[in-house]
Specification:
By secondary structure, the protein is an alpha+beta fold. It contains six helices and five strands; from the N terminus they run αββαββαβααα. A hairpin with a 4-residue loop joins β1 and β2.
Length: 156
């Protein structure tokens, strides 16, 4: 039997998981990203350099990637976000091992695949649009290119 529009839209399909964090004195509730949130998060982590040229490449922005995901995924008992996107810098100052543990759970709940997680963690080279991943990572530029995806996500 095919699902109706209403049954699809009413389905409670965003999962949560409670993770004990004894170092913080309790538990953290994580929820997976919605499709819209995942698209915005992934877009905010990528930048196109040398757009429109033969040297065009997609570069991953790894600065505070864990905290930038976690501010979207940490919720209270009612499912309300605990942090705003602007809190990522503050959360990013917390213990990296704890953030890494929470990031892994949030990534799994959100459906970020292993390849994307490795890219975000810096364990994989980022291929250019032609699929060539043999070039070394580029040096960061002073300013994003005009076609950068950074900042395209609306803050929640």
């Amino acid at each position: 039997m095919a699902l109706s529009r209403d049954s699809i839209l009413q389905a409670a399909d965003v999962k949560t998981e409670t993770v004990p964090v004894p170092e913080w004195g309790g538990d953290v509730i994580l929820r997976g990203l919605t499709g819209e949130e995942m698209d915005a998060y992934q877009a905010s982590r990528r930048q196109i350099r040398n757009a429109g040229t033969k040297d065009q490449e997609i570069v991953l922005i790894q600065d505070n990637a864990r905290a930038n995901l976690l501010v979207k995924c940490i919720v209270d008992e009612t499912g309300t976000r605990v942090f705003t996107d602007r809190d990522a810098g503050l959360l990013g100052a917390k213990n990296g091992k704890i953030l890494d543990k929470l990031f892994d759970v949030a990534s799994a709940l959100s459906g970020l695949n292993d390849e994307e997680q490795e890219e975000m963690e810096g364990n994989s080279e980022t291929p250019s649009e032609d699929g060539d991943s043999s070039s070394p990572s580029p040096e960061p530029s002073d300013a994003p290119s005009p076609s950068s995806f950074e900042g395209s996500a609306a803050e929640s």
